[in-house]
Amino acid sequence: MLYLDLIVDNNTDRTDSFYTYACAFEDVAVGARVFAPFTAGNREKAAFVAAVKDTLDERIKGLKHISRVDGEIALDARAMEICLWMKKRYYCRYIEAVRCFLPAGSPSKRGKRRTPAIEELPEDRRVSLTAEQTAALARIFPWIDEGRHRTFLIHGVTGSGKTEIYLRAAERTLERGRSVIVLVPEISLTPQTIGRFVARFGRERVAALHSKLSAGERYDEWMRIKGGDARIVIGARSAVFAPAGDIGLIVVDEEHEGTYKSDMSPKYDAIEVAIKRARQTGAAVLLGSATPSLVSSYRVEKRLYEKLTLRERYNRTPLPFVRIVDMRDELKNGNKTIFSLELYRAAEETLAAGKQVILFLNRRGYSTFVSCRSCGYVMQCADCGIAMTYHKAEDEAQCHLCGAHRVPPPVCPDCGGRYLRFFGAGTEKVEETARALFPSARVERLDLDTAKRKGEAAALLARFRRGKTQILVGTQLVAKGLDFGNVGLVGIVSADVSLNIPDFRSAERSFQLITQAAGRAGRGDETGRVIIQSYKPDHYAILAAAENDYAGFYGTELLLRKAMDYPPFGDLVQIAVSSRDEALAAAAAEELADSLRARADAASRKCVLGPARARIYKADELFRRLIYAKVPPRDREAFELFLSARKRALAMSKSSGKYSISVDVNPYSYM
């Protein structure tokens, strides 16, 4: 007789613990999916084996028996180890971590394999390596050959050939009979990456895992990976949980991107999970970026990662010529449009030369907000309490958080005035302006509004690649990893958008976005141009980005982070206390903050901030208050134990259901 500790598939805090069952079946391993009677009514529930024991604590009486074992869906012991670690690191429920490793969808009723289509398959450009690429691979290959774990940070300027390094490293890994996982920051980039790998390795060896696939396609791809038919997995952050066997290499492209951090429970960091999985199997990890995150560069400094540098573009074309335009001067000279005179002239010259233009603005919609010029009223979402963005194409204001939409009222609902106006600019307005200024050019827009349907983003990018579109307007989707040889000009319409976000990473995000967007220019045989428009042209992040001075930016930003005890000098933990009762939310948050301060020493006490109202104070009928705690490495374990115990005590108390506590470690959203 075996005895199993089970994680029951029941997503509540009250049942978030191990349940011990007897098992008469042989060869049941950790990670197996079983079915067992649960609750007083003995309703059969799915569960996952967290531990297998030969003996039982004699104090445990009256055990129930599992009823059957699932022969198809199961985790392995390594995946279960990651789940237990995620529970502790990200304060999630056990079953939430387990579900990350499970397939979506179900088997085809017709028995036909559902294979995702590849929109465009490029030629395999197996090019000769530069001296820098050769040197980088010479450092990577021994770790792959010996099956030892090592994390490499590949800091390469845009167009320096990082993807070719990924391909060669993957080839070496496959030759050793091992598997490869490749992560990209955006689903829109997945087709491009899949195309490069399929062209090199063939369709049968490559699988895709991302949310734009149908549930059936994801299920069949998951089974191909688990069965060992596909040894290369490509996808967005959730692909880090792919059931690949004997992982030898994990690639994280554009590692600096915040999209690798989940904002839904479990709120995991895909890079942390990738490194954890790589340590289990002795795999190499390649983190690639032209603008590495401050955290990654700091880990190089602390010798946790090894840095490999690519200073030159593959084709040796110089980096683009960059010019900063002070928009305050444009305003003084009577130009109230979103295009400076210099940007307009540069675009005109670029189009006349047969080159393409990318216009970047990291804000979608037509106008940022709708406001009354008489009384100051701002049109807000009734559920979220944030300003709604006006979309001209639909003639409605939309909430970019919950998706609510309303037609703007004809008069101000507060004062009855008729001076409701649209303020600010988004990509929709940039698109409209570009069409008016350049009527003979084909203008298209890539943002979350135009890429809603499956395949739309890939088709739009394919048209731009083939030269059918002359001007591409977009948000950060156009700033990440796109490789187009005919782009002569990148115009950054407003470099200030990301600087004004209430986030300690705002300067870092601005530097990265500007540098990445600028890197889309001049990737062919001719030097490109970049024009950065800003009302803060002297900001250190903008100046460093214009000069491609990563070292200068890193040094300045690191000093500021250290002075404020922000990452990478510890974790910033966001604790949200929510309740339908506004007074209860406030009282519970105050009590929790006081408890955190009481357990801390004098130095750490000042690192507990709040509680304060969340920027989105009321959502889904819940009132939300936020506490922030800066947790240095020395305090992490004690902090985890304390907060986990508080969450568990709440789940088992009479207050369970009256209010809740959710935790986000190093969040990328402060709403």
Short précis:
With 671 residues, the chain is an alpha/beta fold. The strands form 6 sheets. A 7-stranded parallel beta sheet has the order 8-9-7-10-11-6-12, with helices on both faces. Strands 13-23-22-14-21-20 form a 6-stranded parallel beta sheet, with helices on both faces. Strands 2-1-4-3-5 form a 5-stranded antiparallel beta sheet.
Strand content: 15-25%
CATH topology of the largest domain: Rossmann fold
Assign the CATH architecture of the largest domain: 3-Layer(aba) Sandwich
Derived structural class: alpha/beta
Coarse shape: globular
How many beta-strand runs?
27
Number of domains: 5
For the record, the CATH class of the largest domain is Alpha Beta
Tell me the name of the CATH homologous superfamily of the largest domain. P-loop containing nucleotide triphosphate hydrolases
Task: State the low-pLDDT regions, or none.
Answer: none
Integer-rounded radius of gyration: 26 Å
Question: How would you characterize the overall build of this protein?
Answer:
- This protein is an alpha/beta fold.
- The protein is built from 18 helices and 27 strands.
- It folds into 5 domains: 2-100, PriA, 3(prime) DNA-binding domain (GIY-YIG endonuclease); 131-310, 3-Layer(aba) Sandwich (Rossmann fold); 321-365 and 427-561, P-loop containing nucleotide triphosphate hydrolases (Rossmann fold, 3-Layer(aba) Sandwich); 367-424, no CATH class; 571-665, Alpha-Beta Plaits (2-Layer Sandwich).
- Strand 16 (389-391) and strand 17 (396-398) form a beta hairpin.
- Helix 1 packs across helix 2 (94-100).
